[in-house]
């Protein structure tokens, strides 16, 4: 996190120069685990589809995600997906697996599209992320070229954590905390040199992101046990109570 804050302060995360051709395929994936989403989510999903007529848009659910993972990923990826405790953690695993295999854009189903995604990235960018106010990297919108090393490392770490049975909350194990660690590790270990690597990376500020995406819309399911924050912290409270007893 400190590395990414330092790069931002030094101006090294500014937009790279446009390349000769788009590196991120014109594909857009979203995920809602239980088949047909509720009406308010369906409206948001349709907004993404309407704003991107030139993109192949797919809304995956639990069943179609399993089919994709079985066809395109190593067995341990599907095993981790099956073991994931919450729908949000399944979505975290799936987005990384889909992006690594196919490339394209992934957007959370509870975010609102305000402008086409192509407005966020120069043509040559191989990875598009956004930096949260804490300096961490959000994972609700990601654009990536196929087989991108940051996405690959994040997927590897997430799968290993779940299959080991790690008890970290989702934010650390498969969410923004994980993606932040993966990005920092790849940047620090790249043999290309920092400048060469950063030329293919676009890390948006929160202000830049909000011009195209209305994030974390207040939809009804967030007030139920379906939302990861309620179930994750409830599990930790129950575990702490059991250990105290």
UniProtKB/TrEMBL annotation:
One annotated GO biological process: mannosyl-inositol phosphorylceramide biosynthetic process
A GO CC annotation given for this chain: membrane
GO terms assigned for molecular function: mannosyltransferase activity
Pfam families assigned to the protein according to its UniProt record, in alphabetical order: Gly_transf_sug (PF04488)
Record keywords, A-Z: Transferase
PANTHER family: INOSITOL PHOSPHOCERAMIDE MANNOSYLTRANSFERASE 1, MANNOSYL PHOSPHORYLINOSITOL CERAMIDE SYNTHASE
The protein, known as: Mannosyltransferase
